[in-house]
């Protein structure tokens, strides 16, 4: 038992990605064993991981040094321990317009890059009598100005 945790005899406990110790008995551990030809990954630092961190819920992607796209830097650092990253998603994740109603919708895009273009509101814009893409007092005045008229 170590720190209130029971480890069976023969169990390995990894102290890093290249080093481990073996449980040899009650409170008795082997010397530190090193994995041959192991090169530590400087990209991930497990001491940075804080699973209790509160990250903002904002899509501001970063590409971690591990080649993974994270939703923002807070998630990369606190939930993955990434030590370095670059702004934007990793190259293997295509960005583009993800709104199917947009004029430039890209069905192969897996994240929205803010490039969507939409047709201006017209007769589909309920209440926009004068066609200026917004419902304002002018629309009400035009409607009331026609009140009582007989349509042919």
Describe the structure.
The protein is an alpha+beta fold. Among the domains are: 1-39, no CATH class; 46-87, no CATH class. Helices cover 11% and strands 17% of the residues. Strands 1, 2, 3 and 4 form a four-stranded antiparallel beta sheet that branches. Strands 6-5-7 form a three-stranded antiparallel beta sheet. β1 (12-14) and β2 (19-25) form a beta hairpin. The longest helix is centred in the C-terminal third of the chain and has 9 residues, at 137-145. The N and C termini lie far apart (93 Å). The mean pLDDT is 77.
Strand percentage, roughly?
Answer: 15-25%
Radius of gyration: 30 Å
Counting helices, strands and paired strands, the structural category is: alpha+beta
As a percent range, the share of helical residues equals 10-25%
Shape descriptor reads rod-shaped
- Uncertain regions: pLDDT < 50 for 5+ in a row? none
Order of helices and strands: EEEEEEHEEEH
How far is the N terminus from the C terminus? 93 Å
Sheet with the most strands? 4 strands, antiparallel
Count of β-strands: 9
Number of helices: 2
Mean pLDDT, all residues: 77
């Amino acid at each position: 038992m170590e720190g209130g945790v029971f480890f069976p005899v023969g169990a390995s406990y990894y102290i890093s990605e290249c080093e481990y110790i073996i449980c040899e008995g009650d409170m008795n551990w082997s010397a530190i064993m090193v994995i041959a030809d192991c090169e530590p990954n400087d990209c991930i630092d497990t001491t940075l991981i804080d699973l209790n961190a509160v990250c903002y819920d904002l899509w501001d992607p970063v590409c971690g040094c591990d080649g993974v796209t994270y939703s923002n830097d807070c998630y990369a650092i606190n939930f993955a321990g990434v030590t370095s990253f670059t702004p934007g998603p990793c190259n293997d994740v295509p960005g583009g317009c993800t709104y199917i109603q947009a004029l430039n919708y890209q069905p192969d895009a897996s994240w929205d890059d803010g490039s969507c273009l939409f047709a201006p509101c017209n007769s589909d814009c309920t209440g926009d009598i004068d066609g200026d893409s917004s419902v304002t007092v002018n629309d009400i005045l035009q409607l009331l100005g026609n009140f009582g008229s007989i349509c042919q």
